[in-house]
UniProtKB/TrEMBL annotation:
Localisation: Cytoplasm, Cytoskeleton
Domain of life: Eukaryota
Matches recorded under InterPro entries: GCP_C, GCP_C_sf, GCP_N
Protein name as it appears in the record: Uncharacterized protein
GO molecular function: gamma-tubulin binding
Main location: cytoplasm
GO cellular component, one term: microtubule
Entry annotated with the keyword Transmembrane helix: yes
A Pfam family per the record: GCP_N_terminal
Residue ranges crossing the lipid bilayer per the database entry: 32-58
Gamma tubulin complex component protein N-terminal domain location: 177-433
Domain Gamma tubulin complex component C-terminal: 453-665
Length: 729
């Protein structure tokens, strides 16, 4: 039982077509023989039996089945995005295209009785006969009595004489072998181009390539062969020389190119890059000329698609998904999640429908790929938000003539020029709708608590509302955001409209990790302060690379302020201080408060130091991309100077750990003795890191003084905590 592995629906339908065609051949052949016998056409000589012919046709039928069965599964070797593309096109592109015939290899059957032996021809005439019959076979696709060509199991085999004659006529054999090699490559090249043209998933550029190859073969291969056929004084040496020349200069390179295109499913911008690489490998001016023409037409096609994209944010011209941006709204076969979801935190509505395929970007377009992609994103956003016509008219006025006759270098310059205008219009829209400049100025106040103590107010509200003693699942968005608004109001951050765009969430990781578990009284899940999810468009102005550092700082300060509030309440209420540890306990609490106050003041001080310069730069920005860049510069300098970036991650983690242990202590989850034991290793590690890292700077002295020594993790186990926290002068 045969096990079929279909390459795609195209292969399946084409294989079935060939099978049906073979059956029809049998039926019509039987009818034709019956017709001949009935009317008794004696003049027609049938030199082969009906049963033998029937056997040949049945053999062809079986070969078609076998070919379908052993066809290599090209799809399984393709990258995932090419597989998805083929799925899309098989759904979207209809079968209303022209079907090209693939009968280039001679198909007429020469029966043994019709075959003639070249040895029977006079020696002086042999070369002329072989010369003519080869060209008939090669040029007209017809088997002759002297030379036959058969395609079997994807191989092309030539027959012209028996082995004995070949041994005795080595020169003839050598000359013809070179001719057959050329003809085989010619047939195979034509078969590949036909398969490519008939495959609806290949796209416009591959069809252009095939059309150029066909035209090139007609002019540079078939015409010279026709001239040879007409010449006088025919000899195989002349034919061999011509065939070898055609094979080496044109056919072999074109076959390799076409074969690689078919096997690797090379399309779009990848195809343009591939042709540039191939062009650099060949010095033949005829071949490089055809490659230049194909590249020019392909790039011109890209220009047309780009104009449509930047003027209307549509890709109707890109039927074959050859452009490096795909519109997934054209079909319902695949969705955005089927592709790489890197950067999902920055996704706007636009990113749910459009995807950038890096492999399809022509090398010369790489410098402006981001600008082209964001061009569509900005236009899409403004149209979705009903921006003013004065801002959109710039896009609507763009035409193909903008890029006409531009070199690639000037094209990139033009894209940059147009994109700057687009980005300026988008910033103007954001100013009108969101007061975006003032919004950016407010971010340090919201996330860092610059010039305000609202984060402490938030921690206090959480404890007063007993939110640390309920299941995580019960911390709904309404409850969290109700407290957030209340904290903003207490700190007078609700005087502008910007506070409405923030929301408070539980970290998704914390939700999964703690599902169905009630937290201890002294612990609390990770909180995230975010721009509200229903305002995806704001991610264009505040991408994740800006908000993520802010969010980390907010959570650190929330942990510190929560510990400060809980410890303050424990100390203020004076509960459980009637014990022998009272003096040490008070000293430890005092020193802990000093530590976290100094650390928070250090962080806010660094933020304030850079803030005025940050505001000045914000007021000078001319477009949306400059707005993002200024914010990135500020957050980078702040995180580096405040020792909050990745290089100093242990400092933040250890101070968070110390604060969390004091929260447990303040909630009576730990005794003072247990607090000493749990916190001392944190302090020991912190001092060790500060002393061994020379880049820490003044933070080392601010936290513990200028003359403390390294205690390490082990020493922290027997040193009293108050002594470890003590400031050394």
């Amino acid at each position: 039982m045969l096990s079929f592995s279909y390459r795609n629906e195209k292969l399946q339908s084409w294989g079935i077509f060939r099978v049906v065609k073979s059956f029809l051949r049998i039926i019509f052949f039987e009818k034709w023989l019956g017709f001949v016998s009935f009317f008794g056409f004696s003049g027609l000589r049938i030199s082969f039996s009906f049963s033998f012919c029937k056997l040949i046709i049945y053999t062809s039928l079986v070969n078609n089945f076998i070919k379908m069965a052993i066809e290599p599964d090209i799809l399984s070797k393709l990258p995932f995005w090419k597989k998805l593309r083929r799925q899309i096109l098989l759904k979207v592109v209809h079968d209303n295209f022209f079907e090209y015939d693939d009968c280039f290899v001679p198909t007429n059957i020469v029966h043994s009785a019709q075959k003639k032996n070249i040895a029977d021809i006079r020696e002086d005439d042999r070369e002329t006969v072989l010369f003519d019959h080869f060209l008939i076979n090669c040029r007209r696709g017809m088997n002759t009595p002297f030379i036959q060509c058969v395609q079997a199991e994807n191989k092309i085999i030539w027959f012209w004489s028996d082995d004995f004659f070949k041994k005795q006529n080595a020169n003839l054999c050598r000359w013809l072998d070179d001719c057959f090699r050329m003809a085989t490559t010619l047939f195979e090249l034509q078969l590949i181009t036909t398969r490519l043209r008939n495959d609806k998933t290949r796209g416009y550029m591959i069809n252009v390539f095939c059309s150029f190859v066909v035209r090139f073969l007609r002019k540079n291969v078939f015409d010279p062969l026709d001239e040879l056929y007409k010449m006088e004084g025919k000899n195989l040496l002349t034919l061999q020389k011509c065939c070898m020349d055609l094979h080496a200069k044109f056919l072999k390179p074109l076959y390799r190119i076409a074969n690689q295109i078919e096997k690797e499913d090379i399309i779009g911008g990848e195809f343009i890059n591939f042709l540039f690489d191939q062009k650099s490998l060949h010095e033949n001016r005829f071949l490089t000329s055809i490659l230049d023409d194909i590249i020019s037409l392909s790039i011109e096609r890209y220009y047309q698609i780009i104009v449509e994209w930047v003027s209307s944010c549509t890709l109707a011209l890109d039927v074959g998904h050859e452009f490096f941006i795909w519109d997934l709204r054209k079909q319902n076969v695949v969705d955005r999640s089927s592709f790489d979801v890197t950067g999902k935190l920055d996704w706007s509505d636009f990113d749910n429908y459009f995807i950038l395929i890096p492999q399809l970007i022509p090398v010369d377009f790489l410098p402006v790929k981001d600008q082209i992609f964001k061009f569509g994103k900005y236009l899409y956003t403004m149209r979705q938000q009903n921006a003013g016509l004065t801002l959109l008219s710039f896009h609507y006025s763009l035409e193909a003539s903008v890029f006409k006759n531009l070199s690639l270098g000037k094209f990139c310059d033009k894209i940059n020029e147009l994109f700057e205008k687009c980005s300026t219009n988008t910033l103007e829209h954001f100013k009108q709708k969101y007061d975006i400049i003032n919004f950016a100025k407010k971010l340090p106040s919201f996330f860092i608590g610059l010039n305000t103590n609202w984060i402490y107010e938030l921690a206090e509200l959480f404890e007063k509302n007993n939110f640390t003693n309920i299941d995580i699942e019960k911390l709904t968005s309404n409850k969290l955001n109700g407290l957030l608004t209340q904290a903003f109001r207490y700190a007078q951050l609700d005087t502008t409209m910007h506070y409405k765009y923030f929301e408070l969430n539980i970290s998704p990781f914390t939700k999964i990790k703690s599902e169905g578990i009630t937290p201890k009284k002294g612990t609390f899940p990770a909180l995230e302060l975010n721009i509200a999810q229903n305002n995806h468009v704001l991610k264009l102005a505040f991408p994740a690379k800006i908000l993520e550092p802010y969010r980390r700082v907010f959570f650190l300060l929330f942990v510190i302020n929560r510990a400060r509030y809980l410890v303050h309440m424990k100390f203020y209420l004076r509960e459980n201080f009637n014990n022998p540890w009272a003096v040490q306990e008070c000293a430890t609490i005092y020193l802990f408060n000093r530590l976290i106050n100094v650390y928070q003041e250090y962080i806010c001080g660094i933020a304030a130091k850079e803030y005025n310069n940050f505001v000045k730069k914000l007021e000078k920005v001319k477009n949306l991309d400059e707005l993002v860049q200024v914010q990135l510069e500020y957050i980078h300098i702040f995180m580096e100077n405040a020792k909050l970036d990745q290089e100093y991650l242990p400092i933040r983690q250890l101070i968070e750990g110390i604060a969390n242990q004091f929260c447990l202590y303040a909630c009576n989850e730990l005794t003072f003795f247990e607090l000493n034991k749990s916190v001392s290793p944190f302090v020991g590690k912190l001092k060790h890191f500060l002393l061994t890292n020379r880049k820490v700077g003044e933070l080392k002295n601010l936290l513990f003084g200028s003359s403390y020594s390294e205690v390490g993790e082990a020493a922290g186990c027997y040193e009293p905590l108050w002594k470890l926290l003590q400031y050394s002068y």
